[in-house]
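Support reply, case 0932

Customer input (verbatim):
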Amino acid sequence: MAESGADGEPKREFVVPEKLIKSPMDMELWQMSECYYDLIGFISSMSVALQGTRNSQEVAIPPVVEKLMQALDRLEQLAIETPPIDQPARFGNVAFKSWFQKMQSESMQLVSDALPDTLKDAAKELCVYFVDCFGNPTRIDYGTGHELAFVMFLMCLFKTGAVERKDEVAVGLKVRGCSFLKCRVKNAIPYIYTFCSQLFQKYIILARKLQVTYRMEPAGSHGVWSLDDFQFVPFIWGSAQLAVNSPIEPAQFVEEKWITKYKKELMFVGCIDYIQQVKTGHFAEHSNQLWSISAVPQWSKICTGLIKMYQKEVLSKFPVIQHVYFGSILTLKTVKPGTMLPSPRLGMLPRQQQQRPAPPAVPPPPAFPGGDGM
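Our regenerated output:
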């Protein structure tokens, strides 16, 4: 007989995730799986939640998220303790392998410490996604597949209830019949924003530091025709921020004065600032796809277009999906026939967000500690 939990239901058994997409023939199974639908739903729901927000907004950080942010701080400290070494090769500093080994040896404890006592057993499953999100130690590269691993890590935290709080309103977010989040929060939208913007942004900053410190190669980049050599999701959620109460038009995000003003406030502009730091030449030459996006008149259309592009250019590519892990939380179980793929409705604030004051169109610059924030 299965062991029961505190609520009388069978206690969930967590497993170590495995790679199950073995050949291009398996891609159809992936695209009809609950994991795929939940992933699109998760990205869409976050896009809706992030509308009109700013990176510097003061929001309460839940204990689990706070501990995970501390875990990322610890990994950044490991990078400081593991400087790049002198070597003939320009790219792929082998010191990254040492950093990766240190990160891997501490990750299980870091993830376990962040989880509630009732979910300590889930650490072995979540840790696989956590370790996979920082790059490949053999090739010393980083790409959208590693970023996807962190997004799936966030999904696991929601789906296991790791972000739940006691004695608060139960909220189940669904998009067209696809349930992808179940958490207990007093106000769902600000809480999701907190989780996404604070923790995800901190992860992106760490990933950029690793890329620069160890001169990591972009994994599977299409060069000038790619959206970005390393990231994709920050552009989706960053454009979602601008879908409501945007201080800039799409045509303005490449202008230096707006980049300087909003690189700390807006995720999308922060991405543009990072590209300008690591690439030289005219923006239209080294980032043609982003340059063409600046001609789209509405941020909401940019966001929905980027989600479709993400499905086509990342989630439909076997070289990326062959490295995805599946376990008891994110599964390849086929969705019910007739299930509609989630899609966000952008350009208007959900009712929960309308109840709180909208941020100013031109927010005051936040106070940041010393350093360039790379």
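We compared this against your earlier run and they match. Two observations from our side: The longest helix spans residues 188-213. DSSP finds 15 helices and six strands in the chain. Please reopen the case if you see a mismatch on your end.
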